[in-house]
Design a protein that fits this description.
227 residues; alpha/beta; 6-stranded parallel beta sheet; 3-stranded parallel beta sheet
Length: 227
């Protein structure tokens, strides 16, 4: 048996297509949201566009989109305004995360136990401060071959990017090493490129067809942070 969890950053328009695939293949997910960037009923243009594909326009979802789209999924924090961590601005960084969590819990009416570090920037001081603020985990952009190598849930490493060419090999490795497999990404990385969507759908289909796979949420993979 292998417990599989995934999370997705930024709450972008391509999450609509992603959610359709997750539901088709019975997948669970946590969506990490910067609530301060979203208009109520208009899809604002994201600051992350793709120079190699200028015809694709990446947009944040509207608040009205998210309320229905993410129903049945978990929500994580990503900073109210995606504030990158800097040691000199630790207090401001924690405030941005706490304000995001508070507003997300009010908006979605569910608990938001964890977060993902904007741009992956973090260190032990940031992790300790978020633990003190009551966060159960903080996902980094670093990778670990074996999930058991995660000794601090506030500096949580995943095992794969969702489009990694060796995604299925890493899944098989996870079965032999602790039985946990965690992957992440941004759905906008697939843009409107059919080959990328087809590749990721093939991964979801393989997960769905594997009797040893048990989908769980990210929070189900982590232990309580040590004080």
């Amino acid at each position: 048996m292998v417990k599989v969890a995934c999370c997705w950053d930024d709450a972008v328009e391509t999450d609509i297509r992603l959610v359709e695939l997750l539901k088709k293949y019975h997948g669970k997910a946590t969506f990490n949201v910067n609530l301060g960037f979203h208009y109520r009923d208009f899809r604002r243009t994201d600051t992350w566009q793709f120079k190699d594909h200028p015809s694709f326009v990446n947009r944040w979802l509207s608040l009205n989109d998210m309320r229905s789209l993410y129903q049945g999924f978990k929500i994580g924090g990503h900073g109210l305004f995606h504030l990158n961590y800097e040691p000199a601005k630790l207090a401001e960084f924690v405030y941005d995360q706490c304000e995001d969590r508070k507003k997300l819990e009010d908006f979605f009416q569910i608990e938001v136990p964890g977060m993902a570090y904007p741009c992956g920037r973090c260190d032990e001081n940031a992790a300790a401060a978020l633990a003190d603020a009551g966060f159960a985990y903080g996902r980094t952009t670093q990778y670990v071959a074996d999930f058991s190598g995660n000794d601090n849930p506030l500096l949580l490493k995943s095992q794969s990017h969702f489009l990694a060419p060796d995604f299925l090999q890493k899944l098989e490795s996870a079965k032999a090493n602790g039985g946990k497999f965690y992957f992440w990404g941004h759905s906008c990385e697939m843009q409107d490129v059919p080959e990328k969507w087809t590749l990721f759908e093939s991964y979801l289909a393989a997960l769905d067809a594997d009797p040893l796979v048990q989908w769980v949420d990210v929070i189900d993979l982590v232990d309580s942070p040590k004080k």
